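Researcher: Please predict.
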Amino acid sequence: MRGMALVDIPGSKSITARALFLAAAADGVTTLQRPLRSDDTEGFAEGLARLGYRVGRTPDTWQVDGRPQGPAVAEADVYCRDGATTARFLPTLAAAGHGTFRFDASPQMRRRPLLPLTRALRDLGVDLRHEEADGHHPLTVAAAGVEGGAVVLDAGQSSQYLTALLLLGPLTRTGLRITVTDLVSAPYVEITLAMMRAFGVEVGREGNTYAVPPGGYRATTYAIEPDASTASYFFAAAAVTGGEVTVPGLGQGALQGDLGFVEVLRRMGARVETGADRTTVAGTGELRGVTVNMRDISDTMPTLAALAPFASGPVRIEDVANTRVKECDRLEACAENLRRLGVEVATGPDWIEIHPGTPRGADIKTYGDHRIVMSFAVTGLRTPGISFDDPGCVRKTFPGFHEAFAGLKGEIAG
């Protein structure tokens, strides 16, 4: 019997980013408990500070002095680093204020798409200009408040486009009616709606149309739950080693859809127990092949791809076209690295199929993507000789990942 481990996972990146937006937009001072401290979230907080919001930070809590009227400065230049939520949410927040605000980002983030969101903002009357390639950073918002009204949005590339508009809605003068023509990663939208509710705003929904009332947000004290996407690597570690991992703070009431990854592990043969406030995964010595649609939990696609060679049959992951426009083309990055490890892989526009094999050691090409590093660390639990060309890119969401994973390996993998 392998060992058991209790793993404390850092706070959710997705929830921390939404909480920072909501806190900045709320009337009063909001206290965020156990926020994620990482490059992405520090970049978001720094961006708020550049816009004139007061953000006080201690190791365990952040306090944000909200400004429903928008940024406290008339002009600002904001660098969004690698953060997609920062780069998409902050221009939307700034649009509700008054002033001229320029946003730029890292070369990696400059390549990532933004056009469906900026089109929607322009349709709402926002003066927004892209400086180079249309639909990409850098961009400038000449903000004069947002009246509101009806808008149509394609969120088939990223649910963050819809989240940004939903969060903006209460800051408009008349509210928003957002009709969505396509949507990926729908559980992330449910996180947004639940968090807006916690800050005093109830969003109505009729089919594919979301009705967001005006009136603003109320400041509150908000606890950030652990990051379910990050937890997936530790749950996968249990499944591939035969050990047992328990993550407190993620249970039946969790907001994050990515906790659904444990159901994939259950289908493959792992034992899963989800309690009120914790989830446990134990490996059973069996990992079956599986065909799974991961459209709604696509951030965990690389986790499944990295453990797939150890299954007894092929693992086919479908409906994940949106993973091609993340920090890198994650679908191709997974395929390339699995082939480096000697594993047979096939891919299509929105799918990847991995055949059983015995991976050999190799240097993983990370493309600067934190999820590629953390996923293939799982493979490394049963494959000596795996290294990474950029191991430090995990600072984006989990600066202490390598130390935590090494400790886990000592506890459960023998």
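Model: The chain has 13 helices and 24 strands.
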